[in-house]
Each structure stands twice: as structure tokens, then as C-alpha cells.
Amino acid sequence: MKRFLLLGALVALSLQAFTLNAQTIKLGTDPTFAPFESKSPSGEIVGFEIDIAKAMCEKMGVKPVWVENDFDSIIPALQAKKFDAIVSGMAVNEKRKQQISFTDRVFHTPAGMVVRKGSGLTTQAASLKGKNVGMQQGTIFEQYARKYYAPYGVTVTPYKTPDLYRADLLDGRLDAVMDDSVVLQTTLLTKPEGKDYEYAKPALRDEIFGKGAGFGVRKEDAALLNKLNKALADIRKDGTYAKIAKKYFSFDPYGD
Amino acid sequence: MTLSLEGYSQLILAGTWVTLKISLLSLVVAFLIGLAGTLAKLSANPVLAWGAGLYTTLIRGIPALVLMLLLYFSVQMDLNRVTEHFGLHQIDIDPVSAAVMVLGFIYGAYFTETFRGAYLAVPRGQMEAALSIGMPWFRAFRRIQFPQMMRFALPGVANNWLVLVKTAGLVSLLGVNDMVKAARQAGNSTMRQFYFYGVVAVIFLAITSLSQILVHYLERRFAIGIREARL
Amino acid sequence: MIDLIQTYWKSYLWSDGFNLTGLAMTMWLLVLSCVLGFILSIPLAAARTSRNPWVWRPVWLFTFVFRGTPLFVQLLMIYSGFAGVHFIRHSPLLWSFFRAGFNCVILAFVANTCAYTTEIFAGAIRATPFGEIEAGQAIGMSRATLYRRVILPSSLRRALPAYSNEVIFMLHSTSVAFTATVPDLLKVAVDVNAATYMTFQAYGIAAAIYLGVTFLLVALFRRAERRWLAHLQPQTVQASPRNANPRPKEQAC
């Protein structure tokens, strides 16, 4: 019995040592948001935000480890300490700030709605009355739709992942989808199956959409937040940010 | 219609392995919890009996999917609280392990009911005789009660196993990269959803059919020496 | 927790102001699927017990496929899979049916419960005491009359305990409907969770409601059993001086 306990203690200690050795930071992401974060055919997680995060980690001297998580449960997962920061195109808005803290802005791209060409649908509630609008669950687009569309007879349908709302749009089950305009461009409009679709006008603007996306951290992790903000400021100052941005975009994703 | 998996064979194979792993591991967990639960429910201790009764009633009265969603995050959060309290380094539960724990916990209730019926079906004289010759209780259970119990429990266990496998098809809704998620991703990317879901359906059919053949063989094996009523 | 209930109780129970949601939708799904499944399963069960292989093999194939695969996969197939099939997508009649998530869900649920119910009823039909059938045949009853007056009444009663399990199982299975965008009880919980991040509370309320309905159904079926299976209840021994130590009243399980 004593030997067993001793062995158990040794194993436990060795496990501790093993995990404390690597200076890693776990980053949670939902890689369905190209070009910000997506999965390459070989299964690697790539994207603009991924590269920015990698650059920041280099500045901080830690190694990033990626943890995949569906977007609608990414905040609870952060709080359950499955990872230490959210790197998933998460817009900073008041509602979310009640749950977690955000770094300074990482990028700011506008929201967009895509409809079928010739459907005559606009982003106004009156035109969408009786129609079915889809988006990813847990996003600011869902919040916007529930606030401005649902009370006016528009059916709001949230989906767990973007490929699900995309499938239903292409099937004809949805009349419109909402997401980040750059993401819609990359994942739908520039693809062959998206040739019959276009942006709906007028452009969507509201404070629900927040002032850009940032990395999310737990409220109690103030030290980590400061480190991330410093690293972010560093890569913006020394031009790393601009270099990475040029790789993905023809415009400045930082916004104004 | 081409029969190729269009390069998604790797993903689907990996997903199938995850589904099988989760199902089998959950079966083991549920089996063990079921045994413990039965002994608790049938024990003379009213607290144990009442507790076990509460467990089976609650778990069997709530849909497995709802329980899975309810418990999936709580498991990690509660564990964090425990490790923090004791000052230990955080133990991370990966999605597969969390799914196994939750599924095992849920089906433990169903197995408890199955084993309860099986336990009561063994003539009481068997255990009495074993205890009367001085066998320690656990040895008597292991050598006398348990083997005979399993013969009666087999149909129920088989049924629960089939339900468990099919419920394991829901873990993709927890974010686990199982077979169904793989088929969904493959189908939505190639717009050939019908085909990929068909593949997954066939795999499930293979699992359930093989299980039923195995169960049939086990039933015959356990029933050696017993004559069945035949009309 | 309290304000969560105050804000969302209506959605959980019957409507979010625009659609039928929550418990009402779940019950509607359950009732519709079970009734349709029940009605369809009776002729199928009769076919399943037929001696003609051309008759029972197709039914066996149907129950084999629908009992051997998860309901979730069946739903995905009908909702997403069929939508990708060219023939269905471009046929105005078929597409108008499959377009609505609700229809796909009902189709999947009906097929699934019908498969299980068919097997349950087939088993019950097979267990009909042969003497009853012989007696019916002896007085010249036709096949149809035999079914109507002898086999079905006794089989359906025999199947009641197993069928009650199936109905409760179906109630639990309706929780998968939200993946086809049908706003059932679980979907309301998912939406509340996405809006408030109060995971345990959002799902806990749904769990409590499911539990309540399960209890209700169990009580209802127990009453039905007492009525229709009265002839199978264990006999109780009357207390009298002659039976000084009566056998304890056995619990009907």
C-alpha cells in the first residue's frame, strides 16, 4: 500500500513537471471564419487572426496551442479554462464585456448580408418580412437580427456553424444570411456556388456590431490581458501587422 | 454516381474511430456505474437506496441530449473548482473524455435498472448458500451472483448498448469530431450530403448488425446448460 | 436565475411571440409523430407477421434500417441529404414539402417511431395465444374480421407496456429536432444559453420540463395499463382470519 502511494505521488509529480515545462498558451478558436481563421485541407488552422496571434506570441515568448471550439460555446469554454484566450473574430460589444475582457482592437470589418441576385431584398426589416434570415449562433449578427428583424415578422434562424447556414442558403431554405462581410466574400461570393448571390443594401451599421474584434480573456486574467495588448501594440508599431494584413487583404483590416 | 470519398476518407475514418472509442468506453463506464447503482439501490441502507433511486429516475426522465449539453461544461468547470481548491495544476478533460464521462453517467442509470431486474432474477438461495459457508460477500458476488446475473441481464445490456451507440451519434453537437461531424463537413463542402450521410448510416448499420450477431452468440454461450421454453 | 425565467418562460412553454416554440412545439411533434406512426404501424405489423416472404421481407428491411441507425442521422439525411438530391430539389411538389424543416422532422420521426412500433406490435401479435385464433377461424371469421376482433384488441393491450416505453423514448428523441431549425424546447434552451451564457440554468429549466412531462406520461400510461390490462393485474389476497399472514401485495411494475 505504501509503495502504491509513493508510486502514485511520483507519477503525479512527474505529470506536473511535464506540463509546467512548456511555456505555452492555449488559444480557443472556431476555424470556420475564413480568411480570419479556417482549417486548411490538411487540417492545419490558418488565417489572418491566426497569424497575428502567432506573431504576438512570438513577441511574448510563448508557444501558441490551438483548441477548436464551436463559436456559440466559446465563452463558456473560456470560463471553463479550456483555453486562455479567444482568437475567433469576436466583436467587442457591451453584452460580451459583461462576461469577459477584451484586448485592444485587432481588426474591424463591417457586417454584411447576402441575398440571391434579383430577389429585391434589402437589409430593412420591411423588405425581409416573412422571409427567413440565417446566421451563426452566438454572434452579433444574431443579436442584431433578433433586435431589429424578429419583432417585425422576419424569421431569424441561428445555426451552429457557418457551413450549415451556407448549405441552407444554397438549398433555398434561407432567403438571406448575415455574417462579417469579408467572410461572406471569401467563403461564399467568390466561390462558384455563390455566383447567384450578392450583398444586400444598405450597409449594416449599429452599435451592436461593436467597434471591431479583439481577443477575449477571462476577467480575472488582467496580467495576460496587459501582455497581449503590449504584444499587439508592438506588432503594429514594427510593421508586422501590416505585413500580415497585406498577405490576406488589399485593404487595411484595422479599420478606423 | 461515383463511389469515391473524394479525399474525405481520412476524416471519416478518424471520425468512425472516435465514435467507436466513445461508445465502447462509455459502455465500460456505464456498466461499472450500473453495477454500483444496482447494489446501492438494493442495499439495506436507505440513503443509498434513495440516492440511487433519485439518480435513475432523474437521468431516465431527461433526454440524453439535454443531459449531455447540461453536463458537458459543468464537468470541466467543477473539476477546475476542485483542482483550484486543492492548489493542483489544472487537469484538462478533452472533449472525447468528457463525452465518455457524460454518456457513461447517463447510461449508468439505464444499466442500473437492467442489472436490478437481473439481480432479482437470480434465486436468493444462491447468495445465501455462498454466504453461509463463510465466503466474503464480495467473493460470493463475484463468483456466484454476478455470472448468473449476466445471463438475465444480457438482453437488457444488448438493448442499452444499441441505444448507447445511437446516442453516441449526438456527440458532434457537443463539438466532438466524430463520424457524423465528419460526414456533415464533407457533405457540405462537396454538396453531396446525401452520399456522405448514407455512408455514415451504413457504418452505423454495420455496427448495430455486428453487435446483434455478437449478442446472439453470447446469449447462446451463456445459456449452455439451460433449457429454454420453446413452443 | 429568476429573471431568466421571467424573461423566457413564455418561449420555453409555448411561444416566443411569433412561432409555436418550446414545450408546445415539442408536444405537437410528439403527438403528431406518435399518432401517425401508430396508425401506419398496424398494417405494417400485420405484414411483418405474414408468412409470405414477399410481404414480410420489405417490412423487415424498413425496420432494420430505421432501428439500426440513429434518429439524428435519419433526420440529417432527410433534411440535408434530400435537399442535395437533384430530383427532389427541382421538383416543385417534393421541394415544397422538404423545404420546411418541420416537415422533414415529422417525416423522420414518423418513420423512426413506426419502425419501432411495428416491431413491438409484431411481437405482440406473434404472442397471441393460438387458441384464440383457432377459435375465430373455427367459427368462420375472415382474415380481416379475425384481425379486427381477436388479434388486434389483444395484441395492442399486450404491447401497451413496451409501447409506453417507446412513446417516452420518442419524447426524449424530439430534442434532436432543433438541428433542423424547428423551435422545440431544447432549441429555446440553446437560444437562451447563447443570449445569456447561463448554461446550467438554460438547460436545467428545459431538463426540468422534460422530466415533468415524462412523469405525466408515465402516470397516464400506468392508468391506461390499469384499465386495459386489468385482467393481468396480480391478484391480491383478502385479509381474513384464515389468512393470518397474507402475502404482501405485489407491486405492479
Question: Keywords for this structure?
Answer:
heterotrimer; A: 256 residues; alpha/beta; D-Maltodextrin-Binding Protein, domain 2; 2 domains; five-stranded mixed beta sheet; three-stranded parallel beta sheet; 10 helices; 13 strands; C: 253 residues; mainly alpha; MetI-like fold; 11 helices
Number of domains of chain A: 2
Structural class of the secondary structure composition of chain B?
A: mainly alpha
CATH C-level class of the largest domain in chain A? Alpha Beta
**Radius of gyration of CA atoms of chain A, rounded to a whole number:** 21 Å
Number of strands of chain A: 13
CATH homologous superfamily title of the domain at 20-177 in chain B: MetI-like
Global geometry of chain B: globular
Pattern of helices and strands of chain A: HEEEEHEHEHEEHEHEHEHEEHH
The number of helical elements of chain B comes to: 8
Quaternary state of the chains: heterotrimer
For the sheet with most strands of chain B, the description reads: none
Q: CATH homologous superfamily of the largest domain in chain A?
A: Periplasmic binding protein-like II
Mean pLDDT reading of chain A: 85
Query: Largest sheet of chain A, described in full?
Result: 5 strands, mixed
The sequence of SSEs of chain B as H and E is: HHHHHHHH
CATH architecture of the largest domain in chain A: 3-Layer(aba) Sandwich
Strand % of chain B is: under 5%
Termini gap of chain B: 49 Å
Residue share in helices of chain B? over 70%
Explain how this protein is built.
The complex is a heterotrimer of chains A (about 260), B (about 230) and C (about 250). Chain A is an alpha/beta fold and about 260 residues long. Chain A is built from 10 helices and 13 strands. Helices cover about 40% and strands about 20% of the residues of chain A. The model of chain A is unreliable at about 15-20 (pLDDT under 50). Chain C is mostly helical. Chain C has helices at about 1-15, 20-50, 55-70, 70-85, 85-90, 90-100, 100-125, 130-140, 145-175, 185-195, 200-230. In chain C, helix 4 crosses helix 7. Chain C is flat, with a radius of gyration of 23 Å. The interface of B and C includes residues 63, 170 and 184 of B.
